[in-house]
Records
---
Amino acid sequence: MPVTSSNETVEANGSASPEEKAERRRIYNDFYGKGLGVGDVHVYILAPDRSSVGGLGIGNALEAEKMIQMLEATAQKLHIVGGAPAIKPRPRSVPPQSDAASMVFHLTARGNRTGSWREFPSENWIVLSGPESKQLLPTSPVALRTSWEVPAEIAKKFYQWFYPQTEDTSIVNRSRIEQESMRMTVVTLENGMARARIEGALRMKHTFYPGRDTDEFVSATVLGFMDFDVAQQRIQRLRMVTEKAIYGQEPFGVALRSVSRETLRALME
C-alpha cells in the first residue's frame, strides 16, 4: 500500500499528529541503523510488521525500470500475492466545499522543466462566491460587440495562480500582481445565449521557493470564452488558457475551466 508523508508536516511545528511524527522518526532511524539508505525524498519499503525492507533514493526511483525491479524483488522476497487495492483509487486533488450559488474553477499549470515533481502539472481550485461570479457579467445591455472589463479584484483571484509548478509547502499564495487586465467582448448572441471572448494580460512576481526572494516574474497573455444566459444573468461555462506565458526564462502553460455542479458532486463521491 503506497503512503506519502510530507517533510514539512512532520517538522517540529508541522501539522502531522504526534504519532505520525514518531513513526517517521522510527522509520528513518531504523533504515539508517541498518544501512538501507535514507533521504528527505526517498522510497521506504516496510514489511507488514513495519520492519524495514529496502528502498530507493529519489534519483533511481524516478527511473521506471529501476523502480519496477525493486518492487518486484520486494514482492518476491515477502511472498506477496496480488489482489484488489486495499483502498479505492481516488483523485488526490478534490474541490473545496462551496455553496450552490458559488462557481468553482479548476486550474492546471505546467512548465517545461523536467525532473522529480516538475514532471507533473500543478492543480488549484478557485471558488468565486455568488456575488463575485456576477461581477464577471456585463452591467450594461448586451448586444454584439458589447465589451467590458472584469473588475481587478475578480481577475486577480484567477491570475494569482497563473505560474508553473513551484515549491509550495502550504496553500499561502506568494504572488504579487503588478499589472493585470481581463476584457470580455460579446462575439455571438443567439436565443438568449451570449458568448464572450476573453482577452487578458498579466505581469506578476512569484518566488520559486518559500522564504527566498527572487526577481522572477510571470508575463502572460490569456485567451478564453464565457457562455452566459443574458436574461437570467447566469454563467453556463468559462474557459481560459495562456496564449503565451513566461516565468523568468521558462515558458509555461495554464488552463482554467469552470466545473459544473454535477461534476463537483461526482468528484466528491
Note: The helical segments are 18-33, 58-61, 64-77, 130-134, 152-159, 261-268.
---
Amino acid sequence: MQAEAVQVLQRLLRFNTVNPPGAERPAQEYLAGLLREAGLEVDLVGPDPERPNLVARLRGRAPGPVLGLLSHVDTVGADPAGWRHDPWSGALDDGHVWGRGAIDMKSQTAAEVVAAATLARSGWRPAAGDLLVISVMDEEVDGTGALWLCERAPELVRCDYLLNEGDGGRVLVGDERFYGVSLGEKGVFRFTLHTEGTASHASLPGIADNALLKLAPLLERMGARKPGWDVTPGPAALFSRLGLPLDGGGPEASLAALAARAPGLAPLVEPMLHVTLAPTRAAAGGDYNVIPAAARIDVDCRVPPGMSEAQVLARVREVLGDDGYRLEFTEIFPGTSSVPESPLMDALDAWVGATDPGARCLPGISPGFSDSTTFRAAFPDLVAYGFFPHRHMPVEQVAALVHGRDERIDVRDLALATDCYASVARAMLG
C-alpha cells in the first residue's frame, strides 16, 4: 500500500488546487476513477460543477454502522521561491513526498482512498454497515464543501463514525509513547474592539482625545492576563490517561506536572483549557498629521467546545474589564467535540498498540478548525475524531510545515496512515 499511496499522493499534489479559486474537479475526477475501478459507488456533487465534492461508498453485506473517512483536496497558496522542490511537483526525494498539501491534507486523502480501494479490490465488504470516503472542496476558506453536503445531501454522507484531520502525532511523556487523537475543535469567536476619541491636528495633541492611545491598555491586558479555566471532557480525558487527573489540584497543578514530564507538550495542551485572545490587527486614522478619532483591534478568539456567546463575553471581560471600548463579534462558529470513549477510540487504541507495542492514544482537542465541526453539528450522535498517525516526523516539524515552505510527508508515515485506515475499517465494520 505504501507504493500506491505515494503514487496517488504525487499525482494529487500535481493538481494545483490552491483556494481560491480551488479548481478541485480534476483532482476529484482522478480519485473518482480510482475508487470506481476498485468497486465503490461514487458521486461527484456540490454547489459548483467545477468544484465538486466526492462521496464514495463501499456497501456492506448487512445493515450496520457507517464509518466515514473525510479529507479535503483544496490547499492554501505557495510561493515557489525558496522551496527545495516546486510546490506542485509531487517530488519524491530523501524519503519524502514534497508539495503544497503534502501534510494539509492530500496525504490523508491519498491514504484514505488507497486504504478503501485496497480493501475493495481484495474482495472485502463490511459484514455490517458501509465504508464512506468523503473528499470535499473548499475547506481552507469557507468550508462550503462540507456545509453543502451536510445541508443539501445529508443522506449521502450520514455516518456514525468519522476520521478526519486534526492530530495523530506521536509524543513522548516521560518514558511513555502516545498518539494524539483530536476529539473536537475549539470554536472561533472573532471580535473587534473599538475605541473612540476626538480628532485634531497632530501638532496639537493636547487638545485631542487620541483613540489610538486607548488601544494600549487593552493590548497590555491581553498580553498580561488569561481568562479563567473552561475544561471540557477532551482535555480532562487527556490528563486522566496521563495519570494527572484534574481533581488532584486543578488545571494549574496538572499542567505543572505535565510540563515537568513533557516540556514540549504542555504549551500545546494549555490552550485547550480556556478561551484564548490573540490580537492580530490594529488600525486607526488615515493621515500622519491627524489625531485619530477612532481606532480598532481585531482579535482572533478561540474557545473550548460548547461555549455560548454570553459565556465567551464574560471571559473576555475578565481580561479587559467592562469599560473603555466597544466589542463587536464579527465571526461566530461554535466548537464541537465528540465523546472520549467509543468503539472508534477502542479500534484506534488497538491499532496503535499493535503497531507500536506499549503506545496508547491520547485524546485532546484541536485549537484549529476542521470540517468535523460541520459534520458533528449536522449529525449530533456522530463520533468524529482527528487522526493521521505519524511517528517518523516529529510533531514540531509537522506543525511548522503546515502552510509553510518545503511542506512534505515521510513516506513511512504515509504508509502508516494507510494501514491504519484499512485496519480500523475492518475492526469497525467486520
Note: The chain has a mean pLDDT of 96.
---
Amino acid sequence: MRRPSAPRLRDRARALLHLDDPPAAIARALAVGVFISCTPLLGLQTILAILIATIFRLNRAATVTGVWLNLPWFAPFVYGGALKVGAALVPDPYGVREAWLTYVVEHPTRLSWSQILVLLHEVSVPLLVGSAVIGAAAALATYVVAFGIIWARRTRRSAS
C-alpha cells in the first residue's frame, strides 16, 4: 500500500498554471524562488522564500516552488559554477584560496575543523558573489520561460 506523500514538484508546477494571479506576478515569484535556491543557505531556503514572499507580497506557493526547482542533484553543479564565477570576480592576489582548494582536493581526509573554518572563510565571499550572479541569471531565465508558458496557456484557454 502506497503512503500518501507530499505533492510532487511536477504537481506543484502544474498548480502554478491555475493560480489566479497575473502571469507576470506568478513568474516573478517563481524567479525569486529560483534566485533563493541558488544561495548557499541550505536548510533555510524554504523559510527564506516564505519570508521574502510575505514581505514583498509575492505568491508564496510560486516562490517556494521556485526554491524547490533546484533539486539536490543539481546543487553540486550550481555551487561549483557559483564558486568558479565568484573566484573569477573576487580577486585572490596571494593565491590563498587556490592553495586551500588544492590542499582539499589532494588531502580531503586530513582536514581539521579549524582548517575547514579557514577554508570556509576563504571561499565564502566568492561563493556568495558567484551564487548571486548564477541566481540572477537563473531567475531571469525562469521569469522569461514561466511568463511565456503561463501567458500562452491562458491565451489559449481564453480563446477556446
Note: The first helix runs from residue 9 to 16.
---
Amino acid sequence: HQLFVDPRIRYTSHNSAACLGVRAAPDSITALAAACREFLLTASAPGADAGLCIVARGAADAGIQAFGQRAKRAVVERRDAEQLAGGALLEGLTGDGGGVIGALAAVGLRASGSDGRFLWLPGLREAAERRYRLADLETATGIEAVQTVDGTPIERNEALVDLGSWPRAVLIGGRAVLLVERVNHDEPDSWRAAPKELVKRY
C-alpha cells in the first residue's frame, strides 16, 4: 500500500506499508505477535520506523479504513493512529515509533478491499515468463480475476495470458486481480500483464 510521500514524513525508500492476512485461533495472538515482532526487528531496513498492528478482520472498521485513505493523501499523526486503534495491538518497534501510522494504515487499506498490490501469491513469481489459459490461472498463481486497465473483465476460459517478467496482482473488490493489455488486436484472446510502471500506481 503506497502512503503519502512528503518531506515531513520519515521513510527509508518510498513510504509503503504491507499487510498480511492470517488465519489464527484467538488464543494464538500472543505467539503470532511474537513471531511478527521477531521478523520485523530482523528484516526491517536500517533506519526504518517499523510498526506492528494486529486487528481481527471484522474489527477493521470504517474509521480505520478512512485513516488508511487519509494516510495516502496527507500527513497524519501518531496520536491519531493510537486513538483509532482501540483494543487492537499497535506497537512501534524501531526508530521513533512512528511506524504505527503505516501499520494501522495498511490494515485499513487492506480491509477496504480495493487498494494496493500483492507482494506475494502462491506460485505467482515462479510463473514469470509463462503463459496460462485463463481457466488455469487461479490454481497456478492465486490470481482470482483478470481485467484490462480500464476495468473490462477478461472471462473466456480459453484466453491466453502472458505473465511477463514481473507479474503482480492488485487488490480490487476484495480479489487478487491481474491487470492486462491486449498483445495484438488481431488476436482477441491473447493478453499480457500490464507493465510494472502502471501496476505500481495501485
Note: Helices lie at 29-43, 62-73, 78-85, 99-112, 134-141, 196-199.
